[in-house]
Design goal:
2 domains, 13 helices, alpha/beta, two-stranded parallel sheet, disordered N terminus, D-Maltodextrin-Binding Protein, domain 2, about 40% helix
């Protein structure tokens, strides 16, 4: 193992300590040993930085276990907010990133750190809140109107506050509502989605959640969806697409680019997309595959504002 790879392994181990409870017993990060059908990569390690939603729902474990077995490799997964996951990759401490904030993904790619971005899957965001619904937002068709009502009522709201994809979306909704959130009713936690839902449950507060994480924890909390996302007929503003991007080996020569591309190929293949489609919690689908289409969208590969020939 190269000196840099050894340093990265220590970095990932230290960074992952914060989510050690979620990692324990997870085949996605402990590494399965299998014969694999690509002898050239057997025994290698892929470092994946990803969002807490893919981790908290268990989807990552489902996907990675099969990849590890097929190739005889180990996936070291670090769950962070999207901003932190991309920053880790910028520093050369990841091979591939799986995130859900297109504006941040575009910035990452424009700066030259990421290549070969692909649409992966989607779900949506929902506004959840307590049974008492103190702001009276239940069933509202507009997320911005719901946020404005929460602010006007001074009803408690728990924010991730962590530069994640969810936090980025939340700030866009506040901006659309013409509200600069703050004060005693608004709490920024710096925590992942699962912990934010627990805090909101304890405090009888509202929160913005991706649907997948909410469904995976619904049986353990007393929060209810108050404003739906587009999957259930709500506003398109709450759409939540996920992308996957290889770290550019021209910028960081140490990255395991071949294995990163094998992983991208796997999760966007018919097999990977079927596993995403079939992954459920309490009988409900958490994510919807988006990589395969009879009418492929070139725009998935490049940042907004770039033309098909690679120029602006």
């Amino acid at each position: 193992m190269s000196k840099h790879r050894a340093t990265r392994r220590r970095f990932v181990a230290a960074l992952g300590a914060a989510t050690a409870g979620g990692l324990a017993g997870c085949s996605a990060v402990t590494g399965a040993s299998g014969g694999g059908d690509r002898p050239g990569v057997v025994g290698e390690t892929l470092t994946l930085t990803t969002t807490t939603s893919t981790y908290d729902t268990g989807l990552l474990a489902e996907l990675n276990a099969h990849f590890e077995e097929r190739y005889g490799v180990t996936v070291e997964a670090v769950a962070q907010g999207t901003g932190a996951a991309l920053e880790t990759a910028r520093n050369g401490d990841a091979d591939v990133v799986m995130v859900h904030a297109r504006s941040l993904e575009d910035e990452f790619t424009r700066q030259g750190y990421g290549v070969n971005r692909r649409d992966l899957m989607f779900n949506d965001f929902v506004v959840v809140g307590p049974a008492s619904d103190p702001a009276g937002i239940d069933g509202m068709a507009s997320a911005t109107e719901a946020f404005a009502a929460i602010a006007e009522a001074g009803a408690p709201f728990v924010s991730r506050g962590d530069d994640s994809g969810t936090h980025t979306k939340e700030l866009a909704v506040w901006d659309g509502a013409g509200v600069d959130p703050g004060g005693g009713w608004y709490q920024e936690t710096g925590q992942g989605m699962g912990e934010v839902l627990n805090i909101a449950d304890e405090q009888g507060a509202y929160a913005l959640s991706d649907r997948g994480t909410f469904l995976s924890q619904r049986s353990e909390i007393d929060l209810t969806v108050r404003v739906q996302g587009p999957i259930e007929g709500g506003p398109d503003l709450l759409a939540n697409p996920y992308g996957i991007i290889a770290v550019n080996p021209a910028v960081h020569g140490n990255v395991n680019y071949d294995l990163a591309m094998a992983y991208i190929g796997y999760v966007t293949s018919p097999d990977g997309q079927e596993r995403i489609a079939n992954y459920e919690s309490d009988g409900e689908q958490l994510f919807f595959p988006r990589a395969l289409s009879e009418d492929p969208n070139f725009r998935q590969y490049v940042p907004a504002g770039w033309s098909a020939n690679g120029t602006r």
